[in-house]
Amino acid sequence: MNAFKGWEIHYAVGAYDLHIANQFPAKSFYAQHVDPIGYGAFTGKISIEMLIDSGIKGSLINHSEFRLNFDTIKKVVLKARAMDFNVIVCAEDLDEVARFAEIGAPLVAYEPPELIGGNISVSTAKPDIIEKASALCEKNAVKLIVGAGIKTHNDILTSLKLGAAGGLVASGVVLASNPAVAITSLINN
Questions:
Q1: What are phi and psi of 108, to 5 degrees?
Q2: So what's the pLDDT on residue 177?
Q3: Picking from 26-35, 42-51, 79-88, 162-171, which range would have the lowest pLDDT averaged per residue?
Q4: Residue pair 30/59 in contact by the 8 Å Cβ criterion
Q5: Backbone angles phi, psi at 87, to 5 degrees
Q6: Distance between CA atoms of 54 and 47, rounded to whole angstroms?
Q7: CA torsion angle for 136, 66, 148, 140 (degrees, to 10)?
Q8: Contact 34, 87 (CB under 8 A)
Q9: Which CATH number characterizes residue 40's domain?
Q10: Looking at the predicted structure, is the pLDDT value of residue 126 above 80?
């Protein structure tokens, strides 16, 4: 966990960059994907064990750019829970939020695909859905985070007021002219 003035920041980096986690032990790194396998003959797969051994704290799964079937998601969630490994499962609608919350995903990230990478925040475009998604997660003792179009401190605050526990941000930071300033501006007024 990387606390910055009360905020937790986790960095989800691509597989090629996972090795940097050991160079920054005070930071919390997540993978962008993990497979429900162990050690063995699994060429091209990424195991939870491999990530833990590399200092990785968790993983994002089922992002709109790399969708998984429900059985695979369930296997990852169950294995991660047994190994005390954090998983954020991305959901594109309320049905998915409900399904992922019911299987006990520790964090469900609601990200409507049509808003990903755009300039309209999910908290502006779909505040009613965030409230409904929050209620579904709360019912199952799961935390909700939201993503898509988040670029400002107000986007984060609005999401929190609607019941989310945090935000999932990518393009708002990585495409900014100064990513360090962009991420700092999300958590500071």
A1: -115, 130
A2: 74
A3: 162-171
A4: yes
A5: -135, 135
A6: 11
A7: 10
A8: yes
A9: 3.20.20.70
A10: yes
> Do the beta carbons of residue 49 and residue 85 sit within 8 Å?
no
Token output for 5:
């003035």
Query: CA 60: distance to chain centroid?
Result: 5
pLDDT in the model for residue 169: 78
Residue 2 near residue 8 (C-beta atoms within 8 A): yes
> Token pair for residue 158?
């609005």
Rounded-to-integer distance, Cα 162 and Cα 94, Å: 15
Residue positions annotated with a catalytic role: 63, 111
Number of domains present in the structure of the chain: 1
Helix (H) and strand (E) counts in the chain: 8, 9
Contacts of 23 (CB under 8 A, 6+ apart): none
pLDDT of residue 5: 57
- Please name the residues in contact with 60: beta carbons below 8 A apart, sequence gap of 6 or more: 12, 30, 31, 32, 33, 87, 88, 90, 109, 168
Q: Which band of pLDDT confidence, cut at 50, 70 and 90, is reported for residue 79?
A: very high
* Dihedral (CA of 15, 19, 22, 24) sign: negative
The full length of the chain comes to 189
Determine whether 140 is exposed, middle or buried from the number of CB atoms within 10 Å of its CB (0-12, 13-18, 19+): middle
Instruction: Note down the domain range covering 39.
Output: 3-187
Separation of alpha carbons 110 and 122, rounded Å: 9
